[in-house]
Amino acid sequence: MINAAEIELLQKALSTLAEGFEHLPEFTPGFDEPRLEEVLIEAATRMQDNYPYYHPQYAGQMLKPPHAIARIAYAMSLWVNPNNHALDGSRASSPLEKECIEALGAMYGWQGHLGHLTGGGTMANLEALWIAGRLHPGRRILASAQAHYTHQRISDVLALDFSPVPVDANGRMQVEAIAEQIGKGNVGTIVVTLGNTGYGAVDPLADILPLAQQHGVRVHVDAAYGGYFGLASRLADDVRRHYDCLGDVDSIVVDPHKHGLQPYGCGCILFRDPAVGRIYQHDSPYTYFSSAELHLGEISLECSRAGASAVALWATQQYLPLTAGGEFAGWLDESLLAARDFRQRLEDSSGYTPLLHPELDIVVFAANAGSADECSARAQAIFEAAARQDLHLALIKVPIELARAKLPHLDPNTGAVTCLRSVLMKPEHRDWLEKIMRILEACAAA
Ligand SMILES: *Cc1c(COP(=O)(O)O)cnc(C)c1O
Questions:
Q1: pLDDT higher than 80, residue 294
Q2: Contacting residues for 74 by C-beta, under 8 A, at least 6 apart
Q3: Which domains, and CATH codes, for the chain?
Q4: Is 246 in the pocket of ligand 1 (CB under 6 A)?
């Protein structure tokens, strides 16, 4: 689990950091080492009670371990503990954040855009919908019925009406249903999810954009989970074309702490038109202007933000640039291929049926049974049996009509079916599929 070289690298990075402060009169805050050790050992012992998120046999929820460079850079920066609210608190890390934002926007072909890091995707989506509401006051928000659950709640917080849009058999927002909603009037913004959290389904952005443009509706893309996949080379053509028009949307959310190898606390909001910066205007007596430019605290709803997140992301992006054909992109391809391979193995098995076709790296599958409630009970039992063999999966409640699209003979005696779900986010997952399948087959046979 722990590579000793990482600790050594942290030590080296810290020594270099300290050199920058050597001219100061000697001052090192002291501490009670034995007591510290006692409490730390207690904390580490408590932390043993976790699923092994870093291990390829954790193939459940959307949890990807941070890259070593992110972990080390984050830890190193804590000896300064910069606050990326204003430049005074983050002389070095605010410029690093700006470089990160430039590179993230460049993934979508943007230049001169406005954006910043956030605590996560929820905060980033809140900012996007807040701006949307300011630009189209009183107009409705549309999002997929399978969009992240927070969109409805964010709309509620912002006192904006929210209308869910039904999905097709592969979990994608239905364009005809959007057209129908626009026909009813008063739609201000469509939230298009590229990679929804449940199924990894990619909403048909290329077909939604012309409709939105025709009716003066804003398009916000929630790509918190799926935002990096445009770099991959193995997307299916029908998915690729939606990624290819990301440059034309109004705002994008991407979470570096989902697929971007970052520790938690790192989301990102990007606006194509930097003029939205004027909407953030505030007049704080505590925030000092140390530059003529809009500083990050002026274009963020959050005040204090971890400069450590920017340092970690910057180091990661230096080491693994966001380029198509690069190493980072190659890892995303491994995840795409792992999902397809896994789906095929499940299709070939007698115990399981994969449901939707994986567009990214999420595979949802049913445990074969005659009726919906038996199917749910079997999924639950297999989930627990697999965990006892150190294979960790996730469960998801699939609406009965989505399940029946693939399992037409399933007796629909309940409104939703509990199914198994795997997010194959780690580049190593592909090599572990054989082992994973062996455990799954044993669980199905038991
Ligand atoms: C994870 C996720 C969110 C929420 O992001 P947090 O970082 O958990 O706050 C929003 N939308 C999508 C599509 C997500 O996958």
A1: no
A2: 66, 263, 308, 309, 311, 312
A3: 87-280+294-319 (3.40.640.10), 327-445 (3.90.1150.10)
A4: no
